[in-house]
Write the structure tokens for this entry.
Amino acid sequence: MRAPHTASKSQSAPERSEASGRQRGVASRPAPEREGAAMFVVMLVLLMTTGVAIFAVHTTTSEIRAAGAARQALQTQYVAESGLIAAIAYSDIIQPAGVDHSLQSSVPGGAPYMSQFFEPELQAGKHNYRLYLSDMTTSAAPAGFPIETDAARGLSLGRTALAPWFIVDINDDHIYTAPIAGHRSDGAGSLQFMAATYTSRGRTRVPAAVGTDVPRSTGDTRPYLEGAADARAYVVLGPYGRR
């Protein structure tokens, strides 16, 4: 009489296990209002990461451009100072009397002469002797010039499409009357000194073609990516014989 009772207990164990399994399955299923929350968080993290990456790339690009602009400005200043030194060396080569003669025979005409450098035009009758970079790098230039012309030594400005260029204006010339050691202070001697202002305008720019001085322009009249810097010196030349 006890065997059927025992069988009924052994048959109820799987039923309880299956029922508890169904209860556990229902409990582990997420609630309907929480579905998709993990995907939203992942998408939010990806969006923030993408934004940070874009900002980092933009910042790096801006810093590289700023560094390039600073380098170009420094190189342009060196170009202007080189033009000034070259013009003074040129004056030493042709002698003060040669500079005086060049100034006396150089009077700008009525065409715009200084406006391209955003400076007022010279008064009528004023002397101005202008030197170009090409005057110091051609075969006609005096020997011993401090201008590098050897292409085998590499580009002057490094690995860039920019080319150096300058012009030097010599003007405001007058007889220098201040006392100078070793010379008569009354101005009655046979020698004299001349003073003049040397203004060097250095440029770094993209040339229209290799070996030309013509800048490549954009839609307006301003040269493309041009750097500009000026250097000025007050130079006393002499002594040389009076005119």
Remarks:
- Residues 37-104 form the longest helix (68 residues).
- Residues 53-241 form one domain.
